[in-house]
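Changelog-linked ticket: pseudouridine-5'-monophosphate example.
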Amino acid sequence: MKQYLTFTDEVKHALENKMPIVALETTIISHGMPYPQNIEMAKEVEQIIRDNGAVPATIGIMDGKIKIGLNEEELLEFATNKSVLKVSRRDFPYAMATGKMGATTVAGTMIAAQLAGIEMFATGGIGGVHREGEVTWDVSADLTELAHTNVAVVCAGAKSILDIGRTLEYLETQGVPVVGYNCDKFPSFFSRESEFGVDYRLESPEEVAAVMDSKWKLGLDGGMIIANPVPAESELPYEEMEKVINGALAEAKENDIAGKKVTPFLLSKVKEMTAGKSLETNIALVKHNAEVAAKIAVALKKKQNA
Ligand code: PSU
Ligand code: MN
């Protein structure tokens, strides 16, 4: 499988020298945010990771290769090209065989990160069980990936476009630990809390790294969620967002939006309905997640290299 991977010099050097690395996804760039905020976010997030002592590896598919690390020109291509595929587990074979450009989702990025030997990943929010999932069977492949791929994901929880309760139940069934980073409630992306609790509250990068280390040393394959609430100054009120999200869900239903189009549709509706405020919050929380992920990656490598 390694024949399909290519690395930037920065990432290659970091891997060879057992340095801390943080993987980043491209779906958030190509399908999650508009241009030019998406490219600005992508570059800033990489810099935050470097400033916190780790090496960023933004992952995407181009020319039949899985690229571990993207240069500026490639990042810009993901930010502006309108025909980029959204690549989750099921889409890899097609994207690789056709040579089409593919932005990796949380699931897709985890697969690529594991192939490359990267254990830490920062994003905004994970996919999950959609509301009315009992009717539509819309359950993100992110959850099954978390069940068996050894990559820990720092996120701001899950948007309440999803059914957060069922998402957490699914993760429990699949044996995925949900850690609250300095929080007791599972965050709901735009807001710092939801009505649901986390499994364990941990308060330092070292504590999180120790849990990751013992999980994988025990051979308990699968990922981990590190839920990191949006900084208070960027939070949007939960009740207000509930109304917005209910409006967006109604529109998705009216327009018969299904399959992989659901999440990007809801995201852009929410942005429209909050006059762009949701985008600012989205960017703030991704940056915060990158910082925390870098610190955990540093702590983990210190432990592993000791
Ligand atoms: N949630 C967000 N922003 C995003 C996504 C999820 O708040 O950009 C993206 C991620 O790439 C995630 C994917 O992996 O959507 C989930 O899509 P689906 O529900 O189709 O599995
Ligand atoms: Mn889906």
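Closing comment: Example verified and attached. Residues 61 and 289 are 23 Å apart (CA to CA). Residues 25, 27-28, 32, 88, 105-106, 124-125, 127, 140-142, 159, 189, 260, 263, 267 surround pseudouridine-5'-monophosphate (ligand 1) (CB under 6 Å).
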